[in-house]
Write a structure and sequence with these properties.
It is a single chain. The chain is an alpha+beta fold and 957 residues long. It is 33% helix and 18% strand.
């Protein structure tokens, strides 16, 4: 009989068996019920979403997933892993007495939709909304318990109105380093006006023009426009993020050359918060690996700023963490983009210039220009790589070492970046491997100033590599005014720093690797900036009454492209081509005037910097969020001193940028009094990845995984051998499995159980469709234990369960409950499976209390079948808000434990003992056992090792 006929016969014999078809019917009905009933609506303490005061009075729990982007490819089974996990956790929290807020929106601005628009002419909103509709359908099928009243997309004007509003709060703020908080820019203006704060440059505020005042304030604002170095790709007509540039300095998309250029860009002064971003990590319940990545990205380092005089009245300022080695600085290196390069380059090479320093060029200007063009073609990543060949060129200028008075040559080289420190370094080649290699390449002198601990001696010219140490003493480090000789690093650093400060040529300071956040994109599909410029080029913020500033229609979504090799070009954004939108007449409070709108848009990070706040009060059109609502869900409390979301689940790939940006926005809003939570996410959990096998042909191209055959441990596609490797799951790798496929074949509850049972949530695991059936059979046995497959009637009885069943039940309740609370879903499922197997093997109808608690136990994991069985058991309410079972301690503790007794490492007896037996009592029982006495044969006892209640190990003399 064929498989089809066998299945049909089985359904005829057991018409009420739990099958995929039955699962589909059950799941669709309960999803409709939940939507109509508002089952997952979480009440606020006030406002339009206020609800039952008794529910509000419960402990709250705010659970979030990282914002999904609605891809046109739809979901594969790897995507819902985190969503199912948070849903299981949220359901358990509701059943243990919490008011749970759990919802999901969409981070819908993004480059893929814009690229699709460029290719097809379809408006990005149309394709994005279609993608969202598909994703919502897929997620709904999984039975996720989201409060749908709170959902939104970042492309909704009523949402990005508040993104624009937050930008204006940041734009209209400055960071007071004395009070260590953000303050309104108006307070700074008042201080300049009344003279309580000196205007930079010492001028009178009243004497400054509007443009001059704007420039002064731009040096303080937390959001400011400046000429920033960017990755400019003429072939694509846009600026690229570092991540979009390949290691060989070309665009990841299109393989066009990428150049370094300076363009007017918006920036966020996130560096002002560097210390607070570091310090507040200690209060967060985050994985230590993620905290470490944030600390490294912020990169706090203590050192000194030192001035090296150069040219006529100029100075090159360097930041160094090893100011103690200043006597060993024998040359300097500037980033090619450094602003002083043009100032210090002489017309001709100084007499005696080494040929290797010039690069074969006729004069310094030519050498510098050629090298700058070379460096501009490389990405920052490539420039920082430890390349074997060190490149650079002499500028023709010399600086004075402030401690030795020696003239040191000034080079430019691509390994020094403007994005770190001051864009200039003092090179101490004897004690830095990178400087050592550069010095060797350019025949530069080296001076040993840290005494080597090995036998290499102090003549650095004979060394094969630099000597770096924080333990050794200083040598060759003295002048008429100061000596560091004999001191160790800490002492020497303190002494030289004081000496530099006394002479006004340096000071101790703290530096950060963190750079200000580049906040401009030359694209169409993003939030418009609520900024206009007057005829003098002064930026003005739009009043709140003019928000949201919506995106206009444009005829062409693509930026203008240029000759790929023409670096002397600049972006032309899609918005700039809509002149009716760009050039406007507005009354900003001082009469109608002509203005020009900002034609860049915000980056796709903007909307995800604050979305947790919108979930709280999604329909508020008057405020960002009602203070009472924000305080209720996110305010500080015991164990959460900085407030924030109770559980935030997502991938570790967002360890730095998204999390850092969101923390920055929260701190600004906190400082300005708009929210009570100084941190957005109190507890962070990174789920692992669901992987899948990728099959590649002889060319290395992926082939459809579903069409690969396995024969004798080898794999074939269309008769040809292919190689198998474990990797990501995705459409491009032809190995994606959609949740729709699994739901159709087994049901959503089976998919939920399988993804949670695959292994610990925080580790990656391989997908195996063949293994899904194991969880399907668990649900079939569960159904069969309560429902007669022939009649469809419930088979439970009112008889009291036996003691063995009670022990199995309460152990499962105790263990699974703790596991669900601890996000250990795989072990929770194992305990429920063990209980269900015990009930199956016991035979006979289940006792009603056992059946009901079994259903409630599995409800967070498999909610559809739990609802159906709960209703069949005669209940009219939903399991969602039922109490989770509570274990009876008397049944959790084993009545007896088997203790193994060993003599000389061999088992000689097994004793049944109480679980709480003491070591002393257990030792007495073991030594009195007849088998143990016989095994000892009268020998003395040298040692008895007791591990109550399970082990006694006797060592005879």
């Amino acid at each position: 009989m064929s498989e089809t006929n066998t299945a049909a016969a089985a359904e005829t014999a057991a018409p009420h068996r739990y099958t995929a078809a039955m699962a589909a019917d059950i799941e669709a009905r309960w999803q409709d019920f939940w939507d109509a009933d508002g089952t997952y609506a979480a009440p606020n303490p006030t406002g339009d979403l206020a609800g039952d005061p008794a529910v509000v009075a419960r402990p709250k729990k705010f659970i979030m997933d990282m914002f999904p982007y609605p891809s046109g490819a739809g979901l594969h089974v790897g995507h819902p892993l985190g969503y199912i996990a948070t849903d299981v956790y949220a359901r358990h929290q509701r059943m243990t007495g919490h008011n749970v807020l759990h919802t999901l929106g969409f981070d819908a601005f993004g480059l893929p939709a814009e690229q699709y628009a460029v290719q097809t002419g379809t408006h990005p909103r149309a394709s994005t909304e279609a993608n969202m509709a598909n994703m919502k359908s897929q997620l709904r099928r999984l039975g996720l318990g989201h409060d749908k009243r709170r959902s939104f997309a970042t492309i909704d004007p009523e949402y990005y109105k508040w993104t624009q509003w937050i930008f204006l709060q940041i734009f209209n703020s400055w960071y007071d380093t004395e009070e260590k908080r953000a303050r309104p820019i108006a307070e700074l203006v008042t201080a300049f006006e009344n003279g309580s704060r000196e205007v930079p440059g010492g001028r009178d505020w009243a004497a400054l023009s509007a443009a001059e005042r704007s420039e002064v304030l731009g040096g303080y604002r937390l959001a400011y426009a400046s000429d920033a170095p960017v990755n400019w790709c003429p072939g694509l007509g846009t600026v690229l993020a570092n991540e979009e540039v390949t290691a060989d300095g070309r665009s990841e998309r299109g393989n066009f050359p990428v150049f370094k250029a300076k363009l007017r860009q918006w920036n966020m002064r996130i560096t002002a918060y560097a210390d607070r971003l570091l310090d507040d990590l200690d209060a967060l319940d985050w994985p230590e690996a993620i905290k470490l990545q944030q600390r490294n990205w912020i990169g706090r380092s203590e050192g000194a700023r030192v001035d090296f005089a150069v040219g006529e009245g100029d100075a090159i300022t360097v930041f160094t963490t090893r100011q103690d080695t200043l006597f060993g600085a024998t040359y300097m290196v500037l980033a090619p983009e450094h602003e002083l390069v043009d100032t210090i380059v002489p017309a001709a090479w100084p007499e005696g210039t080494h040929e290797v320093w010039t690069g074969g060029h006729a004069n310094p200007a030519e050498a510098v220009a050629k090298y700058r063009a070379f460096a501009a073609s490389k990405s920052d990543v490539e420039r920082q790589a430890d390349a074997k060949e060190k490149t650079g060129v002499f500028t023709g200028a010399y600086a004075l070492n402030p401690v030795s008075g020696e003239k040191v040559p000034v080079f430019i080289a691509d390994y020094v970046l403007m994005g770190y420190g001051t864009g200039a370094i003092m090179a101490v080649p004897a004690h830095d491997s990178r400087d050592f290699a550069f010095a060797r390449a350019f025949e530069l002198p080296m001076r040993c100033v840290v005494e080597p601990s090995d036998d290499r001696g102090t003549d650095a010219s004979t060394w094969e590599d630099a000597f770096a140490s924080y333990e050794a003493a200083l040598v060759n480090s003295a002048n008429d005014a100061i000596s560091l000789d004999g001191l160790h690093v800490v002492e020497a650093k303190a002494k030289i720093t004081d000496w530099l400060a006394e002479r006004g040529i340096g000071e101790g300071t703290v530096n950060f690797r963190l750079r200000d956040w580049l906040f401009s994109r030359q694209r169409y599909w993003g939030e418009p900036f609520p900024i206009v410029y007057d005829e003098d080029g002064v930026a003005h913020s739009l009043p709140e009454s003019m928000l949201p500033l919506e995106l206009p229609e444009v005829d062409d979504y693509s930026p203008r492209t240029f000759d790929p090799d023409d670096a002397d070009t600049s972006p032309e954004t899609p918005l700039s081509r809509n002149e009716d939108w760009v050039n406007v007449e507005l009354d900003l409070g001082d009469g109608v005037k002509k203005y020009r709108r900002e034609t860049n848009t915000m980056p796709n990070w903007a909307g995800s910097c604050w979305y947790e706040l919108r979930y709280l009060d999604p329909h508020n059109s008057d405020k960002l969020v009602d203070p009472a609502i924000e305080q209720y869900w996110m305010g500080p409390r015991e164990g959460q001193p900085t407030g924030g979301v109770d559980l935030y689940v997502g991938g570790a790939e967002h360890a730095v940028l998204h999390l850092l940006y969101a923390r920055f926005w929260s701190k600004v809003l906190f400082d300005l009094g708009h929210i009570s939570s100084a941190e957005p996410f109190h507890k962070l959990y990174n789920q692992g990845m669901i992987q899948a096998y990728v099959y590649r042909d002889s060319r290395g191209f992926p082939v459809p995984a579903t069409e690969v055959e396995e024969r004798d441990g080898k794999f074939f596609f269309e008769g040809e051998p292919v190689k198998r490797e474990l990797g990501k799951m995705g459409k491009s790798l032809k190995n994606a499995v959609t949740p729709d496929e699994i739901c159709t074949e087994y049901g959503a509850d089976t998919l939920r159980l399988y993804e949670m049972a695959m292994g610990p949530l925080d580790v990656s695991r391989p997908w195996d469709t063949r293994a899904v059936v194991g969880q399907y059979r668990l649900l079939q046995r569960l159904w069969r234990n309560i429902v007669d497959e022939t009649t469809g009637e419930v088979t439970v009885t009112d008889a009291e369960p036996d003691e063995a069943t009670l022990r199995a039940l309460h152990k499962a309740i105790d263990g699974a409950g703790a596991d669900l609370a601890g996000l250990r879903f795989n072990t929770a499922i194992a305990k429920i499976t063990e209980l269900n197997n015990h009930l199956t093997k016991a035979g006979g109808p289940l006792s009603r209390p056992v059946a009901e608690q079994l259903v409630l136990l599995i409800a967070p994991l498999a909610p559809h079948i739990a609802e159906e069985l709960w209703r069949k058991l005669g209940h009219t309410d939903s399991v969602v808000h039922r109490d989770f079972p509570v274990a009876d301690p008397a049944y959790v503790v084993d009545e007896a434990v088997t203790c193994v007794v060993q003599v000389k490492g061999k088992v000689k007896a097994r004793l049944e003992v109480p679980p709480a037996i003491s070591d002393t009592e257990l030792e007495k029982l073991a030594l009195a056992d007849d088998a143990v006495v016989a095994a000892l044969g009268g020998a003395g006892i040298r040692k008895v090792i007791v591990r109550a209640p399970k082990l006694v190990n006797i060592v005879p003399e």
